[in-house]
Amino acid sequence: MIYYIIWVILFFLAFLDVFFKIPKRQKQYLLFTVFVFFVFFVGLRVDTGFDYESWRDVYKNINLTYFDRYIVYHGQWYYGPQNQYLFVYETPVEPAYAILNLVFKYLSFPFWFLLLLFAFASIGIKYRFIKQYSPYAFFSFLILFIYILSGDMGQYRQALAVSILLFAAEAIYTNNLKKFSLLILAASFFHFSALLFFPMYFISRKNFSIWFYIIFLTLVIIFNINSAFLKEFLYSKASVFPLYISAKLQFYLSRENFTLGLSLTSLFRIATLVIFGYSIRISNSESRQFQYVLFNIYFWGIIYFFIFGFLPQLGSRVTLYFKIYEIIIIPLILYNFQLKFNKLVFFVLFSLYFLRSIIEFMASWSADYLPYRSIFF
Length: 377
Description:
Number of domains: 1
Strand order of the largest sheet: 1-2
Radius of gyration: 21 Å
Largest sheet: 2 strands, antiparallel
Number of helices: 21
């Protein structure tokens, strides 16, 4: 299967990079080759990836006459299954995405050209970020692979927003509020959920005590376990919010009957946070202060996950802006531990975890991803 072949190749390159040091020039060529491969692998797909048909239909049907229906939240009365009329809100798309669809359609470009543009922009930003900050770039791409499958080959609008906000950490570290605000604004043009990242500028620069992290996380987990009352309260008060927020809340609250909470995934993230924090403390790296910013961003991502757990779709989407930093945090963990045995243990454990993630993902979405199809075959 092509996805596992890709994983094996990335694993081999990552192993060489971590333990044998690929010569710099060859590494740059190989890294660029991996980047180009993923751009075409993602951008030239056909009928592959979830929601593919939905976004192809948007591209086919969008036009200037009804353009407002794609960027303004609106509703329509439908005759329901139990002989009642239902007022159903239809989801718009973000302005930048709608405009790109309209322009490309006007220029008679095929839908795959739009996908190729998004792949180039989204993966290109990640590629630049990895080159700039990762001590082990191929290991970063090994970790990134699951996010390419679920994001760039699925929720590609948000994948681009997530990519844009990668450089928000740099803006936080350099106290550049203007740059940070522009990044938030640019990302929100492709996915409104990016706006929820804005508080990070003010809370990710602060260094807290260990007890603050432990107590705050514990309280939030307790809140998450007992969050059913909040779900009921919001459902009863949804109408007081602005139309867009109200409609989203009603949509999520009425369709999701479970809560995201403690699980293998959340425990993995907590464990990664703890290991990363310890690795920073024992490290003599010049980038320690920047690593503390990354640590705080990742911590608040876990907090967001548990706070919004009673809205699973929102909770899982919002935390993507924080989870993506694993592509730099996990290689930094290996870099901070100097002993080769420690590096090997963490390399194997993290690799196996992400392999497991890919296996589970492919099992859940096999109908959307198998077989892989492109414009060539």
